[in-house]
Specification:
The protein contains 23 helices and 29 strands. It is of the alpha+beta class. It folds into six domains: 105 residues, Beta-Lactamase, CATH 3.30.450.20; 96 residues, PAS domain (Beta-Lactamase, 2-Layer Sandwich); 121 residues, PAS domain (Beta-Lactamase, 2-Layer Sandwich), CATH 3.30.450; 110 residues, Beta-Lactamase, CATH 3.30.450; 84 residues, Helix Hairpins; 155 residues, Heat Shock Protein 90 (2-Layer Sandwich), CATH 3.30.565. A five-stranded antiparallel beta sheet has the order 2-1-7-6-5. A five-stranded antiparallel beta sheet has the order 9-8-12-11-10. Strands 14-13-17-16-15 form a five-stranded antiparallel beta sheet. The relative contact order is 0.03.
């Protein structure tokens, strides 16, 4: 028992030791795993912190459409919460715009299915932030099969910097292009030389001046604008500018376009070491100086012939020039004027011959006139001398001289007196006019006639006060049917007086009178107002308007009558058709061959008359009637319409072709009306096409409109018939079959197309067939 106990104890100790070792190893492994987990947790927290602070934020899109994104990215997008799906990136007034969201969804789908990478710029709504999105299929390590990983980078500053640099670059390019264009378009020769003074660039004016082919030819041949070469010749100016770094100017002769000219050469040194230059043709300047001299001589010759006296004094106050009228006015002799007398001596000479006004203190008066030389502006006086009235104007000259003008106004004063008499005649004339006339000056009523006073019923005391325009308008308002229209009168006067524009309007008085008011600007700055009585005209216009209303009512009654008659005609027509069918079917006994032909003709005529009645009812009832809105496939509607016309076409051995380009698609509208539209167009084309002809129905369209085209190879229509093709009940002449058509098909088609918001057009020429085009909006 003791030995067994010892063995058991050893075994138990071994097991216990093994358990202790295993527990120690487990504890060590657990502590090691815990340390690794803590390390991974710290690494994950550090990576999350780096991700949060980084310039790029990720977005993971799973295969089922769910997304994972950090809150910071939601903040960038302006979202108040993190969405669970990709569609949640676009919200009302927040997140991506609907267009950006749709584009992003397409890129994500392409990345998930085909692994296609993409880059796009996204701008959140209501923010100035710009986000660069870079997307690709999610890596396999992320264990998201068919997923997509998107990185969002805040590129706001980069976009702004790029935009700023782009603007600066565009401005610099524009400035460079403008400068280049300016140099090229400059009328003067311009050039650029290198540091060795060789030509590197010239403009078109330079090429024309040296008679070269183009700029490259001139540079290659080194053609100089001025003859001679070397540093001792024309290039000396450019060499001095290059060496001294200062602009140089020199005048040299040159042959330009085969003519000898004097040029002023300007050479400007550049920081690059080269020299830019341009040449100014001073030949014309010299000619202008000569011309100016000749002009002065001609001007003096002209002044010598004017009726007013002219005297010019130089800066030294000596007499430089005087005309013959001056000599006559003041009895000046040529011998005395040849010595260029001084201003004071001229005044004294005038006094000696009694050509000056009587003054008590002549020295003081003379000193005051001497100040005319330094006056800031022209001085004007009136002299009364020996029964004549002289207007004197003293104009200081910029170079320090003085110009005196003497005008005899004696005759002018006589004319003013005569003008006063004419004013009286004008007043009497205005009083006798049948129109109301008034003249306004400086915002006041200045002149009026008796008719004006009678039209408005103003008191004489009121008009004699020359009321201002606002006061006159206020007094006129109670006399009008609409008192607010009185402001129109004031506006017309102001426009004529200030804006110098003629305007007109009409006003109605409370007592039923009507007047056309016209305001006309006068040459003296005033405004003339005329009032023409148009009461009778308005009465006649009112009568015509009432008559037009009556005619429209009669037209509505006519339309209602046609519609009612069409309904009434259907009842006997139905009976005729029924009995004819019974006769044709043999219910009244077997018919002869001729009788059958007669009944068939009756049935044909009944069907034709029924169709005409249906067209009349459509034309009178469909106008303004609401359309049914549904999804209409145009190909099906066209086939149904063509099938209904097929028998009519085959009866005339006409080839009816339906051509569908596959792009007609569908529109929203009334299927019955659209089918009837196509049927009417086909019926019109078949009726107008001779036997063994061809009618084509073509369908196509684009994203905006669907198009229906019906064409035939018939004889076409005249311009007059084309103009009336869409008129209701218009007689279009005799058709090829010899029958006169009422023309209801085309008007109905036009009515149905326009009811759908579409457009119909008919093109036809005699001998070339007819083509009708219908465009229906999607």
């Amino acid at each position: 028992m003791i030995l067994v106990s010892q063995s058991g104890a050893v075994l138990a100790g071994a097991v216990l030791a093994l358990l202790v070792l295993l527990s120690g190893w487990a504890l060590f492994a657990g502590l090691r795993a815990y340390a690794a987990a803590r390390m991974l947790e710290g690494e994950n927290a550090r990576l999350n912190a780096l991700g949060e602070a980084g310039p790029a934020q990720p977005l993971l899109v799973r295969a089922d459409g769910e997304i994972e994104m950090p809150p910071r990215l939601a903040e960038w997008l302006g979202l108040d919460r993190v969405p669970r799906e990709l569609s949640g990136l676009s919200q009302e007034n927040a997140g991506a715009t609907p267009e950006d969201a749709q584009l992003l969804a397409r890129h994500v789908t392409a990345a998930q299915r085909a692994g296609r990478t993409f880059r796009m710029t996204l701008r959140p709504q209501g923010a100035e932030r710009a986000l660069l999105v870079v997307g690709d299929r999610a890596p396999e390590a992320m264990r998201t099969p068919a997923g997509a990983l998107l990185w969002f980078l805040d590129a706001t500053e980069s976009e702004q910097a790029i935009a700023r640099l782009t603007r600066d670059t565009d401005q610099l390019h524009a400035a460079f292009d403008a400068m280049t264009a300016l140099i090229e378009a400059a009328p003067m020769p311009m050039w650029y030389r290198g540091s060795d003074l060789r030509l590197l660039m010239v403009n078109s004016a330079y090429v024309r001046a040296v008679e070269g082919r183009d700029g490259e030819d001139v540079v290659a041949r080194g053609l100089e604008l001025v003859e001679g070469g070397g540093l001792g010749g024309p290039l000396a100016n450019a060499a001095i500018a290059r060496d001294t770094a200062e602009p140089q100017i020199a005048a040299m002769p040159a042959t330009v376009s085969g003519a000898r000219r004097m040029l002023r050469l300007h050479d400007v040194p550049l920081p690059t070491g080269g020299v830019a230059g341009f040449a100014v043709d001073v030949e014309e300047l010299e000619q202008a100086r000569v011309g100016l001299k000749r002009f002065g001589e001609a001007q003096r010759a002209m002044l010598d012939r004017v009726s007013g006296g002219v005297a010019q004094f130089g800066s030294d106050r000596g007499l430089v020039f005087c005309n013959q009228a001056f000599r006559r006015m003041f009895a000046m002799k040529n011998e005395w004027l040849a010595d260029r007398p001084e201003f004071d001596r001229v005044l004294e000479r005038m006094r000696e011959v009694n050509r000056l006004p009587d003054v008590r203190d002549f020295p003081t008066w003379k000193n005051e006139r001497r100040e005319w030389f330094t006056a800031p502006e022209a001085v004007e006086e009136t002299w009364s001398v020996a029964g004549t009235h002289l207007r004197v104007v003293a104009q200081p000259l910029p170079e320090g001289g003085l110009l005196l003008l003497f005008e005899d106004r004696t005759q002018q004063l006589e004319l003013q007196r005569e003008h006063g008499e004419m004013q009286q005649v004008r007043t009497a004339t205005l009083e006798s006019l049948a129109e109301a006339v008034a003249v306004f000056s400086k915002g006041r009523l200045q002149l009026w006639n008796r008719k004006f006073r009678q039209v408005w019923g103003f008191e004489d005391i009121f008009l004699d006060g020359h009321p201002q325009i606002p006061i006159l308008v206020k007094a006129a308002a109670p006399r009008l049917a609409n008192p607010n229209r009185a402001e129109v009168l004031g506006d017309l006067i102001r426009i004529a007086a200030k804006d110098r524009q003629q305007r007109g309007s009409s006003i109605a008085f409370a007592d039923g009178r009507h007047f056309d008011v016209t305001a006309v600007p006068l040459p003296d700055g005033n405004a003339l107002v005329t009032m023409l009585d148009t009461t009778d005209h308005h009465r006649a216009e009112s009568a015509l308007r009432d008559r037009n209303v009556a005619l429209e009512a009669a037209d509505r009654v006519k339309t209602a009558f046609v519609a009612n008659m069409s309904y009434e005609l259907r009842t006997p027509l139905t009976s005729i058709k029924g009995f004819s069918e019974m006769l044709h079917g043999g219910f009244a006994g077997k018919l002869t061959k001729s009788a059958k032909e007669y009944t068939e003709a009756i049935l044909t005529s009944v069907d034709r008359l029924g169709n005409l009645i249906d067209d009349v009812l459509d034309l009178t009832q469909s106008e303004g009637a609401p359309l049914e809105r549904e999804h209409v496939e145009l190909a099906g509607a066209a086939k149904s319409a063509a099938d209904s016309i097929a028998s009519l076409a085959s009866g005339k051995r006409i080839e009816l072709v339906v051509e569908d380009a596959g792009s007609a698609g569908s529109v929203t509208g009334d299927s019955r009306r659209l089918r009837q539209t196509i049927e009417h167009l086909l019926r019109h084309a078949v009726a107008a096409t001779p036997e063994e002809g061809r009618v084509l129905l073509h369908l196509d369209g684009n994203a905006k409109v669907a198009r229906i085209i019906v064409s035939d190879n018939g004889p076409g229509m005249s311009p007059k018939a084309v103009a009336k093709a869409f008129d209701s009940f218009a007689q279009h002449g005799i058709s090829r079959s010899g029958e006169r058509a009422l023309g209801l098909g085309l008007p109905l088609a036009k009515q149905f197309v326009e009811a759908h918001g579409g457009r119909i057009q008919l093109i036809s020429e005699p001998g070339e067939g007819t083509l009708v085009t219908v465009e229906l909006p999607r």
